[in-house]
């Protein structure tokens, strides 16, 4: 599995409530996305940076999303291009589902 942290600076600080409204506007496009296990939207405590933390089944799955078109969408929505950090994720402990996930 691969975790990708996509982070971008916001043109001005926003509240968690405002971020929630914005994020709900794009969340449905990620439902059922091939290879995406989970996505977390985040906002830094000062409201100046936001992004997503994605858990993917594979690098190939992740690469299908992070195209130039996707980066342009992020720019048009938030006013800056995202930075991407890739992390190998061999094991996930999920206390909601009460399971340990490890995809070969």
Lay out the secondary structure:
Blueprint: E1 2-9, H1 16-27, E2 36-43, E3 49-56, H2 59-65, H3 68-78, E4 83-88, E5 92-94, E6 99-101
Antiparallel strand pairs: 1-3, 1-4, 2-3, 5-6
Give a short summary of the structure.
With 104 residues, the protein is an alpha+beta fold. 29% of the residues lie in helices and 35% in strands. The protein has helices at 16-27, 59-65, 68-78, and strands spanning 2-9, 36-43, 49-56, 83-88, 92-94, 99-101.
Please characterize this protein's 3D structure:
The chain is of the alpha+beta class. It has one domain: Alpha-Beta Plaits (2-Layer Sandwich), CATH 3.30.70. It has three helices and six strands, in the order E-H-E-E-H-H-E-E-E. It has helices spanning 16-27, 59-65, 68-78, and strands at 2-9, 36-43, 49-56, 83-88, 92-94, 99-101. The strands form two sheets. It has a four-stranded antiparallel β-sheet. It has a two-stranded antiparallel ribbon with strand order 5-6. Strand 2 and strand 3 form a beta hairpin. The chain is globular, with a radius of gyration of 14 Å.
